[in-house]
Write a structure and sequence with these properties.
Residues 195-208 have a biased composition (Basic and acidic residues). Keywords: ATP-binding, DNA damage, DNA repair, DNA-binding, Nucleotide-binding. One of its GO terms (cellular component) is MutSalpha complex. By secondary structure, the chain is of the alpha/beta class. It folds into six domains: 212-363, DNA repair protein MutS, domain I (MutS, DNA mismatch repair protein, domain I), CATH 3.40.1170.10; 384-550, MutS, connector domain (Nucleotidyltransferase, domain 5); 581-715 and 723-767 and 879-906, MutS, DNA mismatch repair protein, Chain A, domain 3 (Orthogonal Bundle), CATH 1.10.1420; 774-865, MutS, DNA mismatch repair protein, Chain A, domain 3 (Orthogonal Bundle); 915-1139, P-loop containing nucleotide triphosphate hydrolases (Rossmann fold); 1146-1189. The chain is 35% helix and 15% strand. Strands 14-13-10-11-12-17 form a six-stranded mixed sheet. It has a six-stranded mixed sheet with strand order 29-30-31-27-32-33, sandwiched between helices. The relative contact order is 0.06. Residues 1-205, 557-561 and 1106-1114 have low confidence and may be disordered.
Length: 1189
């Protein structure tokens, strides 16, 4: 038997192509012994199962038998087959095709040539197609069922996902060679192996760092080239392809060549190569998967691992989450189809005689859709794929085009905007819609943009696309959309409305982008190219869901008099979201964040909406009050709310589930997509999942209708009859009080009553009720007519034979006339004897064959109708997208309201409803927070309530708009600032807040400069980071903004820091924005303490000093008790040595530091006195300076 197999081709020299030979073939039949199971790695023994091992004599599935050695002695050896040319191997296959069937489930070999290529099976059973034996389905699945050698495709059972490959021959099976019924030698189902071939298991001494593929010249790092023979140093090098020499491919067998050709075009992917029931990985892919998935290598001289089809979702998810790209390759031909294809070809080669395999899906972190074969996800968060194009306008500005999408939902966001030198808008976009994968033009991004991607998106997968070829121009993008079938309706291209806004109006064909949207279209082109590569472009684009993205601050252009807020949403940029711990804390985790505190959502789509509400708080007072009223109404009905929340928790992720159903409908799949040709071992399982998904979404929407009707019937408190948002999202449009929740009852009745749910889940097909589908009704009528004809013909035969005649047989051998022997003599020339049993003979006639042919034809038509029926039903369901989507949005809104209401209800401390007052011309914006508490404490932490009042009118004069905050280190200054910022965000969301009362004018934007660290990756120092954040404040803050600045200037020298801080304070005073400005620069406090536009406040503490004696008064320790209370006036010192003591610094160092600090302080006071003496005419000021000494 030839050794030119996928599993053993490395046993010969790749350069020579000549197979090695072993001993001469033995004529006796081989006894296949039990071989060890290929299994998951036992590195984690708690999660793996180690199967029983067998004697090492049974190497690679070969059987031990007695042979005569050259010296005439008898010895026990391992049977080997001599390598032969391909023609001889095929002849041997034909000679041995008459074999007794083994009662096993098996995967038939691919073809005559693939007999020597992948499976080494006989010619009659060529191909990998799974053809189950009904008896073998009930075979024992015990450990005694051995598994195949590394290239067998026999399988034990369908449920064992842990073992990558199942064995084929049981030890209880009789050897065919021992049978007296056949003198032919039994064909071995194991590949010929070289004596040196070892089973690769733990501890067998195989060198995993010396795999044969590492020795291939074209795979050596210095010699790797892409498909165009460009080296990695070439600017146009394509890392997604690999040059594989043609002379090397000529030495390969068909299956091996097929793998290398796919790898050459997808070098950056891990190929999950389907072989029968299993996905197999070879060479470099096997090394990666063995490491990441803890799989053991299979036997053989080269890297090779695999697992069953049923384990695809689990294993691919692990690799994708780690940043790998996975290409799923399916068999798209049966052996019969391959034979027919080869027959139609005028000339065939051995490379044609292999079943076709095609890539059905490429999956990355940014392109997951969680389809039927992928499995579910418990992660409710969005995972965005984003494409960024850039044009540098000047040294300080850039023009960006962006397109981003969560592929599991299918909504494209398209936008274009200018940005500053700090990429503020791009950073905010990435914070609001965090991408997991970034596409950008190679060598086209500026240094500052690269820094944003490398630092802010450090964990995202990054793909540099080749300009024009992969990152398309706007014209190429629009031509592709026009020529494709994405938006065609009756052969006309009908663009989605939001996409039309990006198209130019100078052409009827709309093949030019709007001048202001060209880069946005370019980014769309990059996304389309990538989705096409992943084989999912039609699935997503055909839905036509496009949304226009505009940075929030573009909407906030203020009016000329600056007396109104012009935007609908508060702006929270990336820095503010990070500094206030809105979405994640400083450690990058979820604990202690506002999202964590408020998230009591019961549904995944509700959690995603809450995320967006946190990033985009409202600024319109009426909208905020509508949310407040809805939450207040829910708080007073805890029993109903508890009941509804339980029902919401039972809902599936309707958004993602709808997308999955759309992808299975006739509208969501291209007619020529490889997926439509894929042959799955678990096809019936996947069909059942599709039906279960559909029934699940129907039940989900039925539950949503019940939820809304409960609200309609409940006596809900209405705080505001003018704008009750809760009533609006729960009521039908035709209700006495109209709402926006769609009337779904009739739609659901139609779909629910159209088929038998139990039967559909059982068989994986929709069997429509009578009258629900005309095509199905017609084919059933045809089958019924044939059945009537069969019964009539049977009666005729009973009369003819004069006895009882019955039909016998199944499938294609049905309707044989079973006649008793005594009457069988009446069978004439028109009766053909098929077989017989004791006392009976079975005949077929022209008429039975005709009726059988009709029945088979109509049954196949029924199958086709049922198959198409599921897709048609899914399409009809998806045609009502607007209704279903509106229902989902109402449910999500209700879920978020309940989440906020649950937070308010569960809080033990005092909660209040914020009061918003409109801005008044000529008056400063106000915030008056009384006894506010920090909202985001974790565990049982209790926070001291504090008042924060900025801009309030007192005695006819307005309070200062800026407060200078001082206090000891660790005294709570940063917490006080975060408290005001977070409570402001909560208030603008419509949520109740932890305070006694809160009165404020709406805030258009919150700026923060709290804490600072250097950014090594971006090459930015601590001071530079501080100044960048401060620069954004000075450029964009308005009088309606809230500014929180913590310890500006600490990253440089005292003098420089103080000067910059003083200049910034002066600028913020002029802007009149509400500001908390903390500092340890007490000279800064001295400069502004008499300024009426600045107020002073500090975090109170109690100080106990330990002194030696009054003679030297040397302080050795200062003990601070933090009161965490915000008080008026300035704090005289920062008490940094208390922090040093708490940090455990040596006492000697602290004592020395205290002494030097006192000296510096005395010197500073003397300078102040000297300056006062010579510059002041005020005797009281001079006295104060003297007393300070």
């Amino acid at each position: 038997m030839s050794k030119n197999t996928l599993f053993n081709y490395f046993t010969r020299s790749p350069s020579s192509g000549a197979p090695k030979t072993s001993g001469p073939p033995t004529p006796e039949s081989a006894v296949t012994s039990k071989t060890p199971k290929r299994q998951l790695s036992n590195t984690n023994k708690s999660n793996s199962v180690t199967p029983k091992r067998t004697p090492k004599s049974a190497v690679n599935g070969s059987s031990a038998k007695k042979t005569i050695s050259n010296n005439g002695s008898t010895k026990k050896t391992t049977e080997k087959r001599k390598s032969r040319p391909l023609e001889e191997s095929m002849e041997e296959n034909e000679e041995n095709e008459e074999l007794p069937k083994k009662k096993r489930i098996r995967i038939l070999p691919l073809s005559e040539d693939e007999t020597d290529d992948l499976e080494n099976f006989d010619e009659e059973d060529s191909g990998d197609e799974y053809v189950p034996d009904k008896k073998s389905l009930n075979e024992s699945e015990s450990e005694e069922s051995p598994e195949p050698s590394d290239n067998d495709s026999f399988i034990d059972d369908e449920s064992d996902e842990e073992s990558p490959v199942k064995t084929k021959a049981g030890k209880n099976k009789k050897s065919v060679g021992k049978s007296n019924k056949s003198s032919k030698s039994n064909k071995s189902y194991t590949p010929a192996v070289d004596k040196s071939t070892k089973e690769v298991t733990k501890g067998n001494g195989v060198d995993h760092d010396n795999w044969p593929h590492l020795k291939l010249e074209f795979l050596k790092p210095e010699k790797i080239r892409d498909a165009n023979k460009k080296s990695p140093s070439d600017p146009n090098y394509n890392p997604r392809t690999l040059y594989v020499p043609e002379d090397f491919k000529l030495t390969l067998t068909p299956g091996v060549r097929q793998w290398w050709e796919l790898k050459a075009q997808h070098f950056d992917c891990i190929l999950f190569f389907k072989v029968g029931k299993f996905y197999e990985m070879y060479h470099m892919d096997a090394v990666t998967t063995a490491k990441e998935l803890n799989l053991l290598y299979m036997k053989g001289d080269f890297a090779h691992v695999g697992f069953p089809e049923t384990a695809y979702g689990r294993f691919s998810a692990i690799l994708v989450e780690k940043g790998y790209t996975v290409a799923r390759i399916e068999q798209t031909e049966t052996p019969d189809m391959m034979t027919e294809r080869c027959r139609r070809l005028k000339k065939t080669t051995k490379f044609d005689k292999v079943v076709r395999r095609e890539i059905c899906r490429i999956t990355t972190k940014g392109t997951r859709t969680f389809g039927i074969i992928d499995g579910e996800t418990n992660d409710a968060e969005n995972s965005f794929l984003i494409a960024i194009s850039e044009k540098e306008m000047s040294s300080s500005t850039s023009l960006y085009g962006v397109c981003f999408i969560d592929t599991s939902i299918g909504l494209f966001h398209l936008g274009q905007f200018e940005d500053d030198c700090h990429c503020s808008r791009l950073r905010t976009l990435c914070a609001h819609y965090p991408p997991v994968q970034v596409l950008f033009e190679r060598n086209k991004l500026t240094v500052r943009t690269k820094k944003v991607i490398d630092t802010m998106l450090s964990s995202a997968v990054k793909d540099a696309l080749i300009p024009d070829i992969e990152f398309w121009s706007s014209s190429k993008t629009l031509i592709t959309l026009a020529e494709g079938d994405y938006f065609k309706n009756d052969d006309n291209v009908v663009y989605p409305e939001n996409l039309k806004m990006f198209l130019g109006s100078d052409s009827d064909l709309q093949l030019n982008a709007n001048d202001e949207c060209e880069f946005g279209i370019r980014s769309l082109g990059a996304v389309i190219w990538y989705l096409k590569r992943c084989k999912m472009d039609f699935q997503l684009l055909s839905r036509g869901r496009f949304d226009i993205y505009k940075p929030v601050d573009i909407e906030s252009v203020e009016l000329s008099n600056q007396d109104n807020i012009n935007s609908k949403h508060m702006i929270l940029d990336a820095i503010t979201l990070k500094n206030l711990h809105i979405l994640e804390n400083s450690a990058g985790s979820y604990t202690g964040t506002l999202l964590n505190k408020l998230n009591h959502c019961s549904t995944p789509f509700g959690k995603r909406l809450l995320h967006q509400w946190l990033c985009n708080p409202l600024t319109t007072i009426s909208s905020i009050e509508a949310r407040q009223n809805a939450i207040s109404s829910l708080i007073v009905i805890p029993d109903l709310m508890h009941e509804i929340r339980s029902e919401l928790a039972s809902l599936p992720d309707l958004e993602r589930l709808f997308s999955r159903i759309y992808s299975q409908s006739s509208n969501g799949v291209e007619s020529d997509h490889a997926e439509t040709r894929a042959i799955y071992f678990e096809e019936k399982t996947y069909s059942k999942r599709k039906i279960i998904d559909f029934i699940s979404i129907l039940k989900g929407f039925r539950t949503s209708v019940n939820i809304m009707e409960k609200f309609q019937k409940a006596d809900i408190k209405k705080e505001s009859s003018e704008s009750n948002l809760l009533t609006a999202i729960c009521n039908y449009p035709n209700s006495p009080t109209p709402g926006v929740f769609p009337y779904l009852t009739e739609l659901l009745d139609n779909f629910e009553n159209s088929f038998d749910h139990d039967e559909a889940m059982k068989h994986g097909r929709i069997f429509p009720e009578p009258g629900m589908d005309d095509q199905y009704d017609r084919v059933l009528e045809k089958i019924k007519e044939v059945d009537v004809e069969l019964k009539s013909y049977l009666k005729e035969q009973c009369k003819h034979f004069g006895c009882n005649v019955t039909y016998f047989g199944s499938d294609k051998k049905r309707y044989q006339l079973e006649v008793p022997d005594a009457a069988s003599k009446r069978a004439g020339d028109g009766y053909e004897l098929q077989n017989q049993r004791k006392g009976f003979k079975r005949f077929t006639t022209y008429r039975t064959k005709e009726l059988l042919e009709k029945m088979i034809s109509y049954e196949q038509e029924k199958i086709d109708v049922l198959k198409d029926l599921r897709e048609r039903v899914f399409s009809r369901f998806c045609d009502k997208f607007e209704e279903w989507n509106n229902a989902i949005q109402c449910l999500a809104t209700l879920d978020v309201f309940m989440s906020l209401a649950e937070y308010c209800r569960c809080e033990e401390e005092v909660m209040c409803i914020p009061k918003f007052i409109p801005a008044i011309v000529g008056k400063k914006p106000l915030v008056e927070l009384i006894e506010g508490r920090y909202p985001c404490g974790s565990g049982g932490e209790s926070f001291i309530p504090n008042d924060t009042i900025i801009g309030k009118e007192e005695d006819g004069t307005w309070n200062s708009s800026l407060i200078l905050v001082t206090g000891p280190n660790m005294g709570g200054k940063s917490t006080l600032m975060r408290q005001l910022g977070i409570i402001s965000v909560m208030a603008h969301m419509g949520c109740h807040v932890p305070a006694k009362s809160l009165v404020l004018n709406p805030v258009d934007r919150i700026f923060t400069r709290i804490g600072a660290n250097d950014n090594i990756i971006a090459g930015e120092s601590t001071f530079f980071v501080e100044l960048c954040e401060t620069s954004a404040i000075l450029h964009h803050a308005s009088r309606f903004s809230l500014v929180l600045v913590d310890e500006l200037g600490r990253g440089t020298s005292t003098y420089d820091g103080t000067a910059i801080a003083s200049a910034v304070v002066t600028e913020l005073i002029q802007k009149q924005c509400r500001t908390l400005f903390s500092t340890h620069y007490h000279s800064l406090v001295e400069d502004f303490k008499v300024n009426p536009l600045v107020a002073l406040g500090h975090m109170a503490c109690m100080v106990e000093n330990d002194e030696t004696n009054e003679m030297d008064a040397e302080q050795t320790q200062e003990t601070i008790t933090f009161l965490y209370k915000f008080a008026n006036g300035a704090c005289p010192k920062s008490y940094g040595f208390n922090a040093a003591r708490l940090a455990g610094m040596p006492v000697d160092i602290i004592k020395t530091g205290l002494r030097r600090s006192k000296e510096f302080e005395t010197a500073a006071k003397r300078r102040i006195l000297f300056k006062t003496l010579f510059s002041s005419n005020d005797i009281s000021a001079v006295k104060t300076a003297i007393l300070a000494l």
